[in-house]
Amino acid sequence: GNSVTQMEGPVTLSEEAFLTINCTYTATGYPSLFWYVQYPGEGLQLLLKATKADDKGSNKGFEATYRKETTSFHLEKGSVQVSDSAVYFCALSDADSWGKFQFGAGTQVVVTP
Amino acid sequence: GAVVSQHPSWVICKSGTSVKIECRSLDFQATTMFWYRQFPKQSLMLMATSNEGSKATYEQGVEKDKFLINHASLTLSTLTVTSAHPEDSSFYICSARDWGTGSYEQYFGPGTRLTVT
Asked: Is B49 helix (H, G, I), strand (E, B) or coil?
């Protein structure tokens, strides 16, 4: 079955530091890959997505590239802000799973001034 | 963009009572909606998949008689927690998929915090 593995948190960074959150996946089909962000007490917001190999998703300074050869979708941001403090979830979905999402465990990011 | 709302945002109920949570897609038709449960500092656990006009499909280990799901229209799905107990206290999140776009993207509601006393 499908699975998503992401690096454990919390990740604590200083403002303007470089952020990387690793995400690798296992899937039998050709999944779409997503990064969602969750702020305290809220639901999930789509951060970015990629639907096929070598696609790069980007939004709000965050980027992730769909690497089929390494089955990875690592999230990066060059200069984080305090407002980026949140929990980040990597997820995948494909036709084999009828659109159901497989989420990673989530990575908490804490950015300090 | 696509918006999904949930109501209520939080609810406190006494043990033994039932609670209904609504999930609405505000600007698109959602043929499929999903219900998740999230414990503190944990990931989302899929409870069931709800398709408009048909019975919900529950994940293994989820009690269908306890968590009643109804998807009566293309914009509304409801989750009823029957005979709630303190262990049902959790953060419940719904999401909706717009099949018309051909995308697997899900749009998430803001969540409902349920506390059973």
From this structure: strand
Contact assessment for residue B28 and residue B98, using Cβ atoms and an 8 Å cutoff: yes
Task: Please write the tens of the pLDDT for every residue from B24-80.
Answer: 999 888 888 999 999 888 888 999 999 888 889 999 999 999 999 998 888 999 999
Query: What does the block give as tokens for A69?
Result: 């050869």
Query: What does DSSP say about strands B106-108 and B4-7: parallel, antiparallel, or unpaired?
Result: unpaired
SS3 letters across A17-66: CCEEECEEEECCCCCEEEEEEECCCCCEEEEEEECCCCCEEEECCEEEEC
Of B9, B97, B90, residue with least CA distance to B49: B97
Is residue A53 within 8 angstroms of chain B, CB to CB? Answer: no
> Chain B closest CA to A17's CA: distance in Å?
24
For residue A96, name the pLDDT band (cuts at 50, 70, 90).
low
Residue A83 to residue B4: CA distance in whole angstroms: 23
Contact check, Cβ <8 Å, A43/B6:
yes
Enter the tokens of residue B95. Answer: 């999401």
Through-space distance between the first and last CA atoms of chain B, rounded to whole angstroms: 37
Which CA distances in Å does B28 have to B4, B21, B32, B51, B62? 9, 19, 11, 15, 28
Residue A5 in tokens: 């593995």
Q: Residue B7 corresponds to which tokens in the numbers above? A: 């109501």
Q: A96 by DSSP, 3-state: which?
A: helix
Report the residue of chain B nearest A34, measured CA to CA: B105
Cα–Cα distances (Å) from B76 to B4, B69, B104, in that order, read 10, 11, 19
